[in-house]
Amino acid sequence: MKILVVGTGAREHALVRALSLDPSVTALHAAPGNPGIGALATLHPVDQLDGPAVAALATELGVDLVVVGPEAPLVAGVADAVRAAGIPVFGPSGEGARLEGSKAFAKEVMAAAGVPTAEPRVVTDAADVAAALDAFGAPYVVKEDGLAAGKGVVVTSDRAEALAHAEACLAKEGGAVVVEEYLDGPEVSLFVLCDGTDVVPLVPAQDFKRAHDGDEGPNTGGMGAYSPLPWAPDGLVEEVVERVAKPTVAEMARRGTPFSGVLYCGLALTSKGVRVVEFNARFGDPETQVVLARLATPLAGVLLASATGTLADLPPLEWRDDAAVTVVVASEGYPASPRSGDPIEGVDDADAVPGVHVLHAGTAIVDGALVSAGGRVLSVTATGTDLAAARTAAYAGVDRISLAGSHHRSDIAAAAAAH
Ligand code: AMP
Ligand code: GLY
User: Fold this and answer.
1) What is the mean pLDDT of the chain?
2) Ligand 2 atom with the shortest distance to the CA of 149
3) 35, 116, 213, 252: most buried, per Cβ within 10 A?
């Protein structure tokens, strides 16, 4: 099978790496990719948001499958363009991607499908913000309606900060803001593969969204992840499949916009039960790095089954007994104002640590040297016999990398490993 992967991050590097280990894969291409992906796939400098250009590249290469990694191309309709060219594509239509692209739309679908989530109020007029905040009380949860790479959400007990964020969101063109009930309890990410009709869950993972240890600091795209979750209740996956994924997929089909690709269920395990915090329409980053490190079934056939509506024919997925941990190395200033262009050293040394593989995100090659080129720079991933072993290996890898001014969390999977 020849495959084209669209995207530039560590998630796409993880996808390409998993596909490269699948014996049925005969050629791998990426658009535009990154230097780490370039070691495993042929890179093509195509704008990932340009649907016709991606479709033309896929046609020219004669690929059997296109895998779209990030949300922005999906929301821009890149999967539609590829599908229209007659090529199977892993990823939802632009309409399906609205489950991620508009929080207000996601809430509407959840309400129609009876999916448990935080009660929302969608506000489009600044005069209504204060009343919405006071209806729920502190802590306040205020979300920008559109795509914001995990950075459009403010959770705070400071009413003035909540008001200011809501007003800033409303000031944008067509701005709308979602104010909602605060969900207590730990968060879990569960990726559910969909093909318009059927669903197949992967294994749960936990992400660390805040920039600093102890869940302090600003929200980020994600600073690390681990899987499995030794503390998660039995039956969690089955419950999410029955109460969240199946009703959502059924509702999307009923609307005439069947959903295929990954339904990323961001969940809170609250004192009142499981609630959806958010939907995303693609694999999570960095959770994908740990989930794919544990998947034993070759990946290509699984993604193709989602793309071609044949998930029901897929044999049950097989998983390794290993645990996996990934630690994100971020550049100085991330998330507020990441610095680029610093030399990165030690990636090969880190890769040489048993069980470790380093995945690239914001990297570039300038004059033959590897340098930082974004906020999240590397995702140092390790497997081990248990979470403690995987964690030790991942941090041994991180210790071998040098990047001026970089920061990473030192508590990824710490509590779970001690569980
Ligand atoms: P989102 O972009 O919707 O995933 O939100 C980003 C992060 O904000 C989530 O991962 C949570 O940590 C936090 N968050 C979002 N919604 C809520 C909520 N209703 N209650 C508590 N925390 C939330
Ligand atoms: N890890 C969070 C995200 O991918 O949105």
Assistant:
1) 96
2) 5
3) 252
